[in-house]
């Protein structure tokens, strides 16, 4: 957290007039003024002379590191709370009104300080909040992960939410000064901050106080997220994640596994609050735990916490009444449930939608206005509350049923209107809650995987490991088979290996239904791979009898009928050749690299009556020998008489066993046991599942037996015994240490080796300190067609060096995916920087303003360190450019040149770019190089997503809604319109026509426009209440024999409505009026565009639609 003081050089420099005016313009309107009654609106309308005079005053404050005495005066107004205030100020919300000039000055200073702290990563970890680009998403995700882990592992969990009643009402200036000195803030800046806070203790300066108050860290007694493993857990595992508190601004939550640890943390918090002049309201503490006894009555007794007394803490105990484990609790306005229940949030979402509907149903609003309010007001609220509660599509559809009904009611649509038309952005544009939730989830996962906080990245990989372990997936869960997937940018040692060592995952050998049904049994058996079920030869599947005896008989009652399990039969049907005695198909054969030399019989086959010599391993992986003494069949364990050997010192000699006279692991054995003819001196308890029968020359131990010899040496048996002992201990490699090595001080920006584009010509090397000059250009052709292409080129210019027209060297090529002119302009910059030498000064000449703006953003690390980088198009390409600038320490000067202005070098670069589209030697930039700057990347059909993931997913769901719409029976005819020459629907024109709204005048008002809009969509969707449709929807009222009410000749449908003989004259007049109006508009448009409209009028006049009535 320490920082060099030179980064603060510009903190107290005099501001420019533009910076001051920009700060004032950003201040909100409609706020209460201070004692002088000057408002923000007055500041924003000052004349230039007054602004200049005010700027002089502001510069004096920066120079003296102090504020005016009059600014120290303020007015305090106590605002009553909802309950009775009872003449107690603590029951009010006091607000202090300061001078708006002072608050604008503080805002300017805060903007500068926050920019410095963000750019230089001064504050790290979770000890700050309020910086630009910050979010409260991280603590919410962390708490959800803790609750999920406790439910999955059945771990004890205590959560205590504290209510800090005076979080920012007063600040201990001494502690604040220590915190500011800790980040090495200049003394003058510290003096200015203290001057601002000496009289102001209110929320007007809350952003600065949030930014500067460094929170406390309780690193003792944490709740530990342990990496899932089949091996015994270790206390010093570096892959574990320890969490003991979540503090965001004034929202503090303590987390622990035990009550005693929580008491210890409460003692520290009380001392901290006393030290910093902060108080906590114990009556508002919220406690929930899964370790409290579940009572059968509704009465919940309070829990007493005994605190440690000290000079700072005078409170000996705190009594808190916990909430029920089935109840939901709130953290940062998001509701959590310790049991993982979604019912509370589901009811909240439905209640919000119903309340919204009830409020607007009687309001005089159009359908478009209701959609706008729902999309901009209600959806953000629902999205925030659903951050950790993921509802199914059915639940979302049920919760928003009232919203759809309201929109249809306001638009005068029938309730049977297909829902996809509501969600299409070209139609009503109502946001689908489920699709919006999925967009947010994928976007949040993407940001979490590439978070600038190392802790959040570790949490992301921990959740991946938990998924893998829970569902027996021996590969990364990111490697899904769906079109959308997240993948590691580079499968190198910089990333955690989430795969197991084995051959052919079991889920590839089983049907999904059987795999999910038998998942619990497979977990108990620790089965991941088919190689665990293959004979040592690798060509046959282990028979069920052998597997039952040696592996899983201990999992169920041995007295039951041992028929093959469904999972085994499913694997056998998939992997073995029928009628071949379980021989595997060639694709499943797995020959062992080093087959065991000796094949011993498993110890689990022994019985109490038939006792054998056994060999296994101890806790130090040393050989352990003994004679079977007693057996517990249901537990698959036995007690052996311990015999020792010196086989480790001479592994090549045959194993010689001698009685053990006693050791530390001795297990007392009853001397009167009927199985013991001789009282043993040393016994061991071992597992039969991890033991093998050892052939020896002695079957029975007698009084004079002092030595037993085996026919094998330890060198012969070593591999066999170790492989058998460890066969069930297959565990994923969840180590994070390789990944951690690629992270430096919490910065998530990965630094892979700089790519070497060897096929590109290198620039001419100049002497040290020289200035490189590149002209770059890009072009985009055939956009919207399969032949779309993006070309690029760069030209190196060296003046007065003997080169023809000063052109030293050049390169050109193409780039694929996400076609845009900006991408084509950025590609040559990437190519030029990739081949340039480090520590160079480079000028980039381009006619693209977008490319220049992108280069300027690279200087502030906008594409790597900000969680907003994914909102920028081509962010992966720009992140690679930014990486080159920082890694190679370039000094970049972008220069704007005017396009097509007869600049030779720019025209030459333009010609190279044009030739790249069709040139065979054009260099194609490799996608893997410029899309590997972030740890995880989002792909669709193996194409890396370089657009805003949320916007891209929105387009995907819009396409699915359109597909659902066209799949309706009424639109089946569109699937037969395949020939472009005959007839193709112009959807762009269709949507424009449906959404076109005429200008309102005295005869055509807003409610007329709404009715016009409804009629057009009813006509488009075949939703007009024609007699033919009414017979289908209401057969109880309209019989099939009914005909047209006007002519009584034919059944009424849309075509008959137009061609009815009784309405022919009226319809012809309507058509004639429309034709005259259309031709008039076209002639008028032709005059404005100075174009002859006669050809298009003749073409339109020749259409058969104008003569449809005369022909019939």
From TrEMBL:
<dbReference type="Pfam" id="PF00075">
    <property type="entry name" value="RNase_H"/>
</dbReference>
<dbReference type="InterPro" id="IPR036397">
    <property type="entry name" value="RNaseH_sf"/>
</dbReference>
<dbReference type="InterPro" id="IPR002156">
    <property type="entry name" value="RNaseH_domain"/>
</dbReference>
<dbReference type="GO" id="GO:0004523">
    <property type="term" value="F:RNA-DNA hybrid ribonuclease activity"/>
</dbReference>
<protein>
    <recommendedName>
        <fullName>RNase H type-1 domain-containing protein</fullName>
    </recommendedName>
</protein>
<dbReference type="InterPro" id="IPR000477">
    <property type="entry name" value="RT_dom"/>
</dbReference>
<feature type="domain" description="RNase H type-1">
    <location>
        <begin position="768"/>
        <end position="918"/>
    </location>
</feature>
<dbReference type="Pfam" id="PF00078">
    <property type="entry name" value="RVT_1"/>
</dbReference>
<dbReference type="InterPro" id="IPR012337">
    <property type="entry name" value="RNaseH-like_sf"/>
</dbReference>
<dbReference type="GO" id="GO:0003676">
    <property type="term" value="F:nucleic acid binding"/>
</dbReference>
